[in-house]
Amino acid sequence: MAWETGHELYNARGGWDDSWTETIAEYIKSIAPNQLFADGHHANYARDLTVSQLNLPSVDLYTSHFYHTTDPVYISQLQTSANLAKQHNKVYYIGEFDWTSMAGTPNDLQSLLSLFENPTYNVSGDTYWDLADNANSVGPYTMHWSGDNADMQQRAQLLANHAAKMSASSATTQPTAINLIQTGSFEHTGSNWLSPWTFRVVSPAQANISQVSWTKIDGNYAASVVLTNSNSNAWYMQLGQDGISLKAGKTYTIVFWAKASKNRQIHVLVEQGFAPYAIFTNTTVNLTTNWQPYTIKYTQP
After folding, report:
1. pLDDT at position 170, please?
2. Burial class for 147, CB neighbours closer than 10 Å (0-12, 13-18, 19+)
3. Which pLDDT does position 74 carry in this prediction?
4. Which of 90, 154, 224, 264 could form a Cys-Cys staple with 212, CB 3.0–4.6 A?
């Protein structure tokens, strides 16, 4: 399930910008942390997805709406947006497209559907505009199953075959990864900048955490932890995030960047947030004084 900010918001007037989108996304995630969120500012014939859009930490899905399927510029822009979303590890789908003769011949439609099916272009799914029950019409793009005439019947069959291929592909190939961690680069600002992360220190250990911009690897900020009194119990100081739903038997990948003022070890855990506090994975990581990427894979028991 996914929530969307709205429909074709590029037409909207006022302050419905990236900042507004992130504010709404953060709120939805605060009350439904395990549900996905989509940006309603779609890409189209005149507008590509933007880097600022794709850097929004609380947004998971981005879309394009296109009605110029025989235009080579359209195809190029679709590929540009799809590749840009892939570079930012975001899900990209076609929220609307024209299936009718206004967009070309049945062969043109098949060429477009084949592009969607090509995993190179990172299109996770698509929906044409618009299927209606046979007693109603929603304008020139109305599709009545299984077709009011020979042309519609042919196109309906192409769409049905395409849906079967997309469904089979999603069942047999690895899906686009979904980031379960919110604000991994600590992009919130203000007094609640750390949320939804939590920082816990148990006496006699002493430490503080702050948001810094002078050193970072992704986004605009990083979290800096200064330890002033250490303790042999590693769990006396914890930076973590609660409320993440995990499924038994699924393999998860933990990816992060870190460094320290001197070479030292930290422990990376996935632990149950309530009694009996079962530890699902516990890995010792050796930090250096330079930013380094770390990757941990495990299967949830």
Report:
1. 55
2. middle
3. 72
4. 224
Contact 131, 179 (CB under 8 A): no
Domains of the chain: 2-172 (3.20.20.80), 197-299 (2.60.120.260)
pTM of the model: 0.56
Q: Which residues of 39-58 are buried (b: 16+ CB within 10 A; e: fewer)?
A: bbbbbbeeeebeeebbbbbb
Omega cis (within 30) before 191: no
Write a three-state SS string for 239-264: EEECCCCCCCCCEEEEEEEECCCCCE
Give which of 65, 47, 59 is closest to 21, Cα–Cα: 59
The CA-based dihedral angle spanning residues 266, 267, 273, 274, taken in that order and rounded to the nearest 10 degrees: -110
Q: How far apart are CA 33 and CA 27, in angstroms?
A: 9
Percentage, residues of the chain above pLDDT 90:
48
Specify the residue for token string 């990236």.
18
**Planar angle of CA 168, 155, 102, nearest 5 degrees:** 125
- Report the Cα–Cα distance between both ends of the chain, in Å, rounded: 25
Enumerate residues 6+ apart whose C-beta is below 8 A from 24.
Answer: 5
